[in-house]
Amino acid sequence: MRDALIDLGEVPADGPEEPSLPTAPVPYRWILGLLAVILLAVLGGAGPPPPPPPAPVVLPLALGESVHVVGDRLYVIGLSDPFGTVARTHTIRSYDLPGMNLLGTYTVPVTGDIFTVNDGGDGTLVVSYNDYEFGTPGTVAVRAGGGQPVWKRAVTVYGRSPDGGLLLASEEPEVRTEESRSVWHALDPRTGAVRWSVEQPENGQLAVESGYFWEGYPQFLYTLHGDGRLEARDGLTGAITATGRHRQPVGPGTSFQVAAGLLLIGRDTGEIVAYDERTLTERWRRDDPVLPEEGYQLDCGPVICAVAMQDGLVGIDPATGREIWRADPYDTSEVIGDRVLVSHSQEAEPVLDVLDPGTGRIVARIGAWVSGGPGPAPGTAYVHRIRRSDGSVRYGVLDLGTGRVRVTGAADRIAGDCQFGKGVLLCRRLDSSLAVWRL
Of 69, 118, 393, 421, which sits most exposed with the smallest number of CB within 10 A? Predict the structure, then answer.
């Protein structure tokens, strides 16, 4: 049986229009009216069409002010004061999502550009930035209302543990050399104290199970020593949970990655060995190159999706390492449920497709929509579509099984920078303000 390709379909928020019935002759209209009343009483009536989406919450923003969405928080980062200097101060406003209640206003002194913001718990905000003064990343924790920073460290924060008790951060050397090594710390978000650390081994590597673009917190960290020793560490305690040994030489050409329950160690010759992520026992090895030299791996359910920047998308059997299929290159690839959303998002007109990871075939072509991540129900994704000609946006829910988009709202005077958060859609408007629609 050949795979079917599903055509694009859009369903408006109030459903398709029903064809109108011809007008009844005048003598019988009173009969139809009586029947309509009886049916309305018996069936309870269909009621009026659903109301349009509520008006958005609008935050006035100036050009240059930025927006960060992290979980159920929205952070608005104000312009630096003074502008253009190394040492600067930003005002950050924190809102809850989807309620859009102001939680606090923070004054953050930094020496560079802010790139991540995290809730530190206990009323603190943890901000990482590019430290232009020392040439390394920096992180500072502050409380609402101003005052001195709670703590400050020369690290980059990558994530917060599910219970909120730890921050995972990396510390890079001030001067990069062949001998320099990074150190990963688990920090107390309230005090900045180091709970435990692991250093990149000499002549070795360190890998972290990071998920999709650093979504969530890693369950394990892995170290590969120059002599081939392997170690798996618990992401919460830092304790070694398993050990093993890699029999091949370890050097500058060694790749070290985690995907789909496997620890993948490759060489520039193309050889690759896969180990179980929990026990570090060898699962398979291959002499032919199956992973791209430049790219990353995604857990696509039945397969490993190897994303190559230039050579396309490759489906790899996690049980054997065998290449199952190869697809065209895409700008982005996102796993949602049992499907992979792939897109050419950098084109003048974005193109969104739905790929079956079991076969590598495109099963639905969605068109000029942009994915906003998992939707309100399993097997769905939020999507939006901006028409540049008139600055309008439509948004809705994509059914990954049918390839149809149910449009739930629309707006005009949109400049772009739309993104979905917890129960909301956020877009910058032509006047630079931020509009937030509740979904």
Answer: 69
